[in-house]
Design goal:
The complex is a heterodimer of chains A (about 60) and B (about 325). Chain A is mostly helical and about 60 residues long. Chain A is built from two helices and two strands, in the order H-E-E-H. Chain B is of the alpha/beta class and about 325 residues long. Chain B has a single domain, classed as TIM Barrel (Alpha-Beta Barrel), CATH 3.20.20.70. Chain B is built from eight helices and 15 strands. In chain B, helix 4 runs parallel beside helix 6 and helix 7 crosses helix 8. The longest helix of chain B has 14 residues. The chains are: A mainly alpha (about 60), B alpha/beta (about 325). The interface between A and B is large, with 31 and 63 residues.
């Protein structure tokens, strides 16, 4: 089917508007994760494992 | 490419900017990658009595190696463990314990099982998952102590390696979950049913808070739901509330309220309803639902006698569901 002048202009406008929108969406759309990467380093202080402490019940509920 | 990440582990589906964490504080966007920053680093690591979880129909009288990392996806105003659940990992010292070393440590303390507890294993999911696999390979059992606020896909993957779960059923009201916990009820119910369908032994706990979830209707709804969805043999633990964290304006739960709750739950058809966090005579004992014989006598976290033999009542031979060996 031949494209008329109006159709051609519509396609042009759609590309002008939709292209950048698609590009922007790609840039900001979050990447989805269910499982996270296993961190190799803990951000807080590391304490020495104390077997006497471990052998006692925790102060926390549960 | 976008540096935003979306964590799809729990129903909150947090969108996280670079350098920030989700609501749980421990799932962090590091350079456009979601990272579990407490992996292999429990801030609490202790041998507890099984009865402390509480799990009453699961290896009674044994010790259970119990661990947690900081962080939680719920923000309950009454949280008893807020000092670790609502804390950032930067501020809490932790042990270094990779999953492969966990079974050896459990055996060293003569524990037959490991609990992922205190905060919520949902948020330290990868650590709990890898640990559960190693613990199961070593012939030990895994127990989750959780609010079960998690999406179905990761939940099912974890449950393959789980033997028992103490699930917090905070209320049967969406309003309660929203206002008190910053969560929603439906995913919890779905996760509980999924756990049951996958053969995990479940013991729900309901923390009874004066004026917030202590009406006859509250108790009736919960017991009815448990009977219909988990079975009447499911033990229900009713736990006493004490003022804590952001909820210091309410009094401790009166014993009469807990006894009323127990009567209502039993009237709905539940066989085993226990009262905890308070010393009430015989409230923690297990009786045979058929012949009423005393099967397990408990005092606090101690098992004084256990008469269950091969999972059955020694008097009438009725099978008592649970994990006994």
């Amino acid at each position: 089917m031949d494209m008329k002048r109006r159709g051609f202009l519509r396609l042009g406008f759609a590309t002008l508007i939709g292209g950048p929108l698609f590009w922007a969406f790609e840039k900001v759309a979050p990447i989805r994760y269910t499982e996270a990467l296993r961190a190799r380093f803990y951000p807080g202080p590391i304490r020495k494992m104390d077997h006497k402490r471990i052998s006692q019940p925790a102060r926390w509920a549960g | 490419m976008s540096l935003l990440v979306q964590c799809q582990l729990c129903p909150k589906v947090c969108v996280i900017r670079p350098g920030q964490s989700g609501e749980c504080r421990i799932r962090v966007n590091l350079d456009g990658k979601l990272t579990a920053v407490t992996y292999g680093h429990p801030c609490s690591l202790n041998v507890d009595p099984m009865e402390k979880k509480p799990m009453f129909h699961f290896l009674p009288g044994t010790g259970i190696l119990s661990l947690a990392t900081v962080g939680c996806n719920l923000h309950c105003k009454n949280c008893q463990n807020w000092e670790i659940s609502q804390e950032n990992p930067e501020n809490k010292p932790a042990d270094e314990l990779p999953p492969e070393k966990l079974p050896g440590l459990a055996k060293r303390f003569q524990c037959r099982s490991v609990a992922y507890t205190y905060t919520d294993p949902v948020v330290y999911y990868e650590y709990a998952l890898d640990s559960c696999i190693k613990v199961r390979e070593a012939g030990l059992k895994n127990v989750l102590v959780t609010a079960a606020y998690i999406n179905q896909e990761p939940w099912k993957k974890l449950l393959q390696f789980v033997d028992g779960a103490k699930i917090d059923m905070k209320s049967m009201s969406e309003d309660f979950y929203r206002d008190v916990c910053g969560a929603t009820l439906r995913p919890v119910l779905d996760a509980t049913v999924t756990a049951k369908s996958m053969g995990v032994w479940i013991e729900p706990t309901n923390l009874v808070i004066p004026t917030l979830n202590d009406s006859d209707d509250d108790f009736r709804k919960m017991a009815k739901w448990i009977v219909e969805n988990l079975g009447r043999e499911t033990p229900l633990h009713l736990s006493r509330f004490f003022p804590n964290y952001q909820m210091k304006n309410l009094p401790p739960t009166p014993s009469a309220t807990l006894e009323r709750a127990r009567d209502i739950a039993k009237a709905q058809g539940l066989y085993h309803v226990y009262i905890g966090n308070i010393s009430l005579p015989e409230a923690e004992n297990t009786y045979c639902p058929s012949c009423k014989k005393l099967l397990i006598e408990r005092k606090g976290y101690e098992v004084l006698q256990n008469n269950i033999s091969a999972g059955k009542c020694p008097a009438c031979n009725k099978e008592i569901p649970g994990v006994w060996t």
